[in-house]
Amino acid sequence: MMIPLADLVTILPELIVVSVACLLLVLDPITPSNKKDLLAWMSVATLGICFIMTAGSMGDRVFAFSDLVVVDGYASFWKLLLYVVSGMTILLSIGYLKEERIDLAEFYGFVLLSLTGMMIMVSGADLLVIYLGIELMSISLYIMAGFKRFEARSIESSAKYFILGAFSSGLLLYGISLIFGAAGSTRLVEIAAAVEARGLDDSLILIALMLVIVGFGFKVAAVPFHMWTPDVYQGAPTSVTAFMAVASKAASFGAFLRVMLEGFGGMKPNWNGLILGVCILTLILGNLVAIVQTNVKRMLAYSSIAHAGYALIGLVVAGWVGTGVSAKGVSSMMLYLAVYSFMTLGAFSIVAILRRGGNEGEDLDDFTGLAKRHKGAAFLMLLFMVSLAGIPPTAGFIGKFYLFMAAVNAGLTWLAVVGLIFAAVSAFYYLRVVMVMYMREPSPDQENETRLALSPTATVVLALAAAGVVLFGLYPWPLVSLTATASLP
Amino acid sequence: MSVPVEFYLVLSGLVFTIGLVGVLVRKNLIIILLSIELMLNATNINFVAFSSHFGNLAGQVFVFFALTVAAAEVAVGLAIIIALYRHHASINVDDFRLLKW
Question: Which chain A residue shows the shortest CA-CA distance from B21?
């Protein structure tokens, strides 16, 4: 059997990324340790090429492999975001891995493998293809979380991630098998047709829908499926945490939305109430528990749970029947996650470069008086914290503004008010970091102990993240129009 | 002559539930891993049962995918468990307290 050339061309970016990933795994052992940076640059260059290719085919809508894979504006948008995020993760890791003495180029291979999984997720038009993408992403991430294998904390976080990740994909796969029973196929269009034909109260489809929601709930870290998030984010190496918090969340949301709208779009009344409940629970728990955290990585983990709650507002709006603003819900959620990527990556980068002795300066105490010691780092952290809290004129404000506007347009004004209240609550713990940096004096031994491990590439990452936060805050129109055109109908 | 598809569904539901409960209540990582395998195999029963019910070969192809993914997952999982054992000399989840659950 021959695979048609046109199909291969459609998934050319995926093929390039996965080949380079395999090449990196082979090249790593035979590369002298002072040349490992070359492999990192090679992967960044690959991402650049793929970025140009995907950006060039942005407007198309192509199906491949008998409708198993679709490359449309929606998929292309997520892919562009994922290239940028992966590139920034790799650049951040070049210095970070050396600092942590885990300088193996296979790390970049795993980033690219994981990226391949994410790309397959967002352009899968078949539940099984999406599942395979999720597994490729997750298995690479389990390994990356345990990359500091001589440190018990890292391995422990890897094990927790593995157990709960495998458990959730087991639930998801069982849901998929039930859908196969109900629809005779796992293609999203045929699932939609089966939903149409079998009605809204078909128990087989309802159970399957529930399992799919639970499975994706784990991946996007929505309450009550969030238990793994703080532990894994805290224990994993910081550049991996940044990658997980940003890329895997964006890709999971991308696939989640496509499945819910294209596959289960016919049964919105069955799931929008459930998603609404999950959304509100996520907002409450994420924001309230973040307040009591004293470890900045753990605080950012709860903050990422809270931000999943905000992003879910977009899905609730998209699922609200008869409002005619479904596309607005999707596009505002895409905008929010794009903005979230820049600010969260920036905040984790600061944690990664701040060192105390040989360890990471990840406790809130390590930030004491940072403004006196490292003005630039403190100012950038201020910028990211203000943006995460959603205060204008940063990008975080723009993201929340469009989400809340979409909710108001859908007649869910009260939901926008709830979101606004919790944005105010979140300002408390974000601005506490700022207060600690600017208002407290560093103790004398801290002056000598803490230092910045600022590699040139980490500077580039910080500059990119800061530029994203400021530019999208002051001039968001290109991003707004891009998400509007790339949105699912 | 042939067994109705509902019987297979009940079987796979039972196997899935055993796996689900096993993950939630057992403390030994290896047992948890095996319970996850049970969940995945319950899925395979479903796929094959529906496949023969519909006369649709796609279901059997899905089983190969699910098996391959499960094998890859176990390979990584066992490696993680070995690395964990080297640190704690234990694979009981109650012994891992460095990170608050």
Answer: A167
- Total count of domains within chain A: 1
- CB contact under 8 Å between A155 and B62, yes or no, is no
d(CA A85, CA A277): 30
Sheet with A359-360: list strands edge to edge.
A359-360, A354-356, A450-452
Return the SS3 of A365: helix
| pLDDT (tens digit per residue) in A97-107 | 988 888 888 99
Question: What are the pLDDT digits (tens) for B75-91?
Answer: 999 999 999 999 988 88
Any A CB within 8 A of B96 CB? yes
Q: Do B29 and A159 touch (CB under 8 A)?
A: yes
In degrees and rounded to multiples of 5, residue A363 shows phi and psi of -85, 155
Most A CBs within 10 A among B12, B18, B73, hence the mutation to make, goes to B73
Which range among A194-198, A473-477, B20-24, B37-41 shows the weakest confidence by mean pLDDT?
A194-198
Query: Measured between beta carbons, which residues in chain A are less than 8 angstroms from residue B47?
Result: 177, 180
- Tokens coding A105: 């180029």
Q: Do A283 and A422 contact (CB within 8 A), yes or no? A: yes
What residue ranges define each of the domains in chain B, with the CATH number in brackets?
5-95 (1.10.287.3510)
Instruction: Take residue B49 and report the two structure tokens written for it.
Output: 């049962």
Compare CB distances from A170 to B40, B56, B72 and report the shortest one's residue. B40
Q: For residue A286, is it within any domain?
A: yes
Of B47, B59, B69, the CB nearest to A135: B69
Closest C-alpha to B98, from B89, B85, B88, B90? B88
Give the tens place of pLDDT for each residue, A2-25: 788 888 999 999 999 999 999 999
Helix (H, G, I), strand (E, B) or coil at B28: strand
Q: Is residue A324 in a domain?
A: yes
Q: Is the pLDDT of residue A1 over 70?
A: no
Q: Which residues of B touch A163 (CB under 8 A)?
A: 23, 29, 32-33, 36, 93
Range of the domain at A313: 267-489
pTM for this one? 0.95
Q: Phi and psi (nearest 5°) for A60? A: -75, 165
